[in-house]
Amino acid sequence: MNTRKTLASEITIEGTALHAGSKIRMTLGPGEPGKGVVFRRSDLGGKELRATYDAVGETRLGTVIANKEGVSIGVIEHLMAAVAGAEIDDLLVTLDGPEPPILDGDALSYLTLIEKAGTREWKGKRQRILVRKYVEAGQGDARAALSPADHLTYEFEIDFPTAAIGRQVYSFVFSQEAFKREIAPARTFGFIKELETLNKMGLGRGASLDNTLAIEGDSVVNASLMRFPDEFVRHKILDAVGDMALAGAPLVARFEGEKSGHATNNALLRALFAHPSNYEYVD
Predict the structure, then answer these.
(1) Is 129 a residue whose pLDDT tops 90?
(2) In this structure, is the dihedral angle defined by the CA atoms of residues 6, 237, 67 and 198, taken in order, positive or negative?
(3) 114 shares its domain with 172
(4) For residue 186, which of 163, 202, 168, 203 has the smallest C-alpha distance?
(5) What is the pLDDT of residues 42-51, one digit of tens each?
(6) pLDDT digits (tens, 9 = 90+) for 232-248
(7) Is 124 exposed, middle or buried (0-12, 13-18, 19+ CB in 10 A)?
(8) What is the DSSP string of 74-89?
(9) Across residues 101-118, what is the average pLDDT?
């Protein structure tokens, strides 16, 4: 596909914000040609933020974009993963609060909304970012890398000191169909022992046993919600797909992640764009 793609119509949904815990109304609609994904805060006079890697200001418990005026949008990675999975180029996301609603804690919920709204092609050529050189970013024992490849692929490894997760490895060759089938349904996860601390910080107030796989000790409290035996590593790939979507155009590369999170993913994109010889824009 060489032409850009956006939504054919608007679609609106209400849900709960993962961290703020408040009700959020979100509308997905056609964006402006060539502008990429733009978030609009209707509760702040319609102020807008473009979803790009260099707008990321916080990565502790989700990917947060912000500007110098203090306007921010948090936990955008699941929605951005769905946008990338549907190969949407231009999109306007209107919110009346600080985060998209968490919905089912996956990307499939957003993907379903996109499919209901429909898509259409329009003006402008669709470009991709061809990775020319190996680039890497690391923080502690977390590592992420991009290397030249003919197709976009993801390889991820996690290792948690609980039998509920343990060591999990997954590889994924990107396509719309494979993303919807293998990655988009994977729910976010968290540890019960950390929830009380998060609540005291005003975070995690929208997390529930309906949208988050909850781990206590060596067990998944709501294991009946699991869609895959290795759902945890699949969700980490989902997060990486969403974070890599902040490159501003689809990547053609091999992504490797080892215990990588939002901070490492964002550092990887900053390393990629630090030197023009690392990449090339192609039609």
Answers:
(1) yes
(2) positive
(3) no
(4) 168
(5) 999 999 999 9
(6) 999 999 999 999 999 99
(7) middle
(8) ---HHHHHHHHHTT--
(9) 97
Q: What is the pLDDT of residues 52-81, one digit of tens each?
A: 999 999 898 899 999 988 899 999 999 999
Write the DSSP symbol of residue 150.
S
Distance CA 72, CA 76 (A): 11
Structure tokens at 64: 């947060």
Q: Are residues 212 and 260 in the same domain?
A: yes
**Are 186 and 231 contacting, i.e. CB atoms less than 8 angstroms apart?**
yes
Closest CA to 75 of 185, 204, 199, 183: 204
Coil vs helix vs strand at 13: strand
User: Which amino acid type is present at position 177?
Assistant: E
* Whole-structure pTM value: 0.96
Instruction: Please report, for residues 21, 236, 279, the alpha-carbon distance to residue 187 in angstroms, rounded to integers and kept in the order given.
Output: 18, 10, 32
Tokens linked to 62: 């989700």
Give just the sign of the alpha carbon dihedral 201, 60, 84, 127.
positive
d(CA 80, CA 273): 19
- Distances from the Cα of 77 to the Cα of 134, 219, 231, 261, 264, angstroms: 24, 26, 17, 11, 14
Parallel/antiparallel/unpaired status of strands 212-216 and 188-191: parallel
- Report residue 52 as tokens: 């790009």
pLDDT digits (tens, 9 = 90+) for 179-207: 999 999 999 999 988 776 766 655 667 88
List active site positions. 262
Please count the structural domains in the chain. Answer: 2
Any idea which residue has 């936990």 for tokens? 75
Q: Answer yes or no: do 149 and 270 share one domain.
A: yes
Q: pLDDT by residue (tens digit) across 254-267?
A: 999 999 999 999 99
CATH number for position 164: 3.30.1700.10
Q: How far apart, in whole angstroms, are the C-alpha atoms of residue 67 and residue 261?
A: 22
